Amino acid sequence: MVIVYILQSLRDKGFYIGITKNVEERLVKHNRGEVQSTKKRRPFKIIYTEQFNNYDEARKRESEIKSYKGGNSFRKLLT
User: How do residues 21-49 score in pLDDT, each as one tens digit?
Assistant: First the structure.
Protein backbone atom coordinates (compact mmCIF):
# COMPACT_ATOMS: atom_id res chain seq x y z
CA MET A 1 0.00 0.00 0.00
CA VAL A 2 1.32 3.42 -1.01
CA ILE A 3 -0.21 6.65 0.30
CA VAL A 4 -0.42 10.07 -1.30
CA TYR A 5 -0.69 12.64 1.47
CA ILE A 6 -1.22 16.36 1.87
CA LEU A 7 0.20 18.19 4.85
CA GLN A 8 -0.61 21.70 5.95
CA SER A 9 1.92 23.87 7.70
CA LEU A 10 0.61 25.29 10.95
CA ARG A 11 3.16 28.09 10.55
CA ASP A 12 2.40 29.49 7.09
CA LYS A 13 -0.80 27.52 6.20
CA GLY A 14 0.88 26.27 3.00
CA PHE A 15 0.62 22.72 1.70
CA TYR A 16 3.01 19.87 0.99
CA ILE A 17 2.08 16.88 -1.18
CA GLY A 18 4.04 13.64 -0.99
CA ILE A 19 4.08 9.85 -1.21
CA THR A 20 4.95 7.30 1.46
CA LYS A 21 4.24 3.80 2.71
CA ASN A 22 3.84 5.01 6.31
CA VAL A 23 2.17 8.41 6.61
CA GLU A 24 2.44 8.66 10.42
CA GLU A 25 6.19 7.99 10.33
CA ARG A 26 6.61 10.45 7.48
CA LEU A 27 4.74 13.16 9.42
CA VAL A 28 7.13 12.66 12.33
CA LYS A 29 10.09 13.16 9.98
CA HIS A 30 8.58 16.35 8.57
CA ASN A 31 7.92 17.70 12.06
CA ARG A 32 11.42 16.82 13.31
CA GLY A 33 12.94 18.82 10.47
CA GLU A 34 14.39 15.77 8.73
CA VAL A 35 12.88 16.73 5.35
CA GLN A 36 14.91 19.55 3.84
CA SER A 37 12.09 21.02 1.73
CA THR A 38 9.76 21.46 4.72
CA LYS A 39 12.22 22.09 7.53
CA LYS A 40 11.49 25.82 7.89
CA ARG A 41 7.70 25.41 7.66
CA ARG A 42 7.17 23.14 10.69
CA PRO A 43 4.95 21.97 12.32
CA PHE A 44 2.60 20.12 9.98
CA LYS A 45 -0.67 18.28 10.24
CA ILE A 46 -2.10 15.66 7.88
CA ILE A 47 -5.16 16.98 6.09
CA TYR A 48 -5.69 14.42 3.31
CA THR A 49 -4.64 10.89 2.30
CA GLU A 50 -5.39 8.49 -0.57
CA GLN A 51 -4.23 4.85 -0.73
CA PHE A 52 -2.96 3.06 -3.83
CA ASN A 53 -1.86 -0.48 -4.63
CA ASN A 54 1.47 0.51 -6.15
CA TYR A 55 3.98 3.31 -6.41
CA ASP A 56 3.22 4.10 -10.08
CA GLU A 57 -0.47 4.78 -9.37
CA ALA A 58 0.44 6.92 -6.36
CA ARG A 59 3.04 8.93 -8.31
CA LYS A 60 0.51 9.61 -11.06
CA ARG A 61 -2.06 10.85 -8.54
CA GLU A 62 0.54 12.96 -6.73
CA SER A 63 1.41 14.67 -10.02
CA GLU A 64 -2.26 15.24 -10.75
CA ILE A 65 -2.87 16.84 -7.35
CA LYS A 66 0.23 19.01 -7.70
CA SER A 67 -0.98 20.19 -11.12
CA TYR A 68 -4.05 21.81 -9.58
CA LYS A 69 -2.59 22.85 -6.26
CA GLY A 70 -4.15 26.10 -5.15
CA GLY A 71 -7.01 25.98 -7.67
CA ASN A 72 -10.67 25.03 -7.41
CA SER A 73 -9.94 21.33 -7.91
CA PHE A 74 -7.47 21.40 -5.02
CA ARG A 75 -9.97 23.11 -2.72
CA LYS A 76 -12.69 20.59 -3.69
CA LEU A 77 -10.35 17.73 -2.88
CA LEU A 78 -9.87 19.05 0.66
CA THR A 79 -13.59 19.51 1.40
Answer: 999 999 999 999 999 999 999 999 999 99
- Burial code (b: 16+ CB inside 10 Å, e: under 16) for 31-56 equals beeebeebeebeebeeeeebebeeee
**Rounded distance between C-alpha atoms, residue 64 and residue 59, angstroms:** 9
Provide the residue ranges of all domains of the chain, joining segments of one domain with +: 2-78
Task: State yes or no: pLDDT of 69 exceeds 80.
Answer: no
* Size (the chain), residues: 79
Amino acid (1-letter code) at residue 43: P
For the full predicted model, state whether its pTM sits above 0.90: yes
Contact 30, 46 (CB under 8 A): no
What is the architecture of the domain spanning 2-78? 3-Layer(aba) Sandwich (3.40)
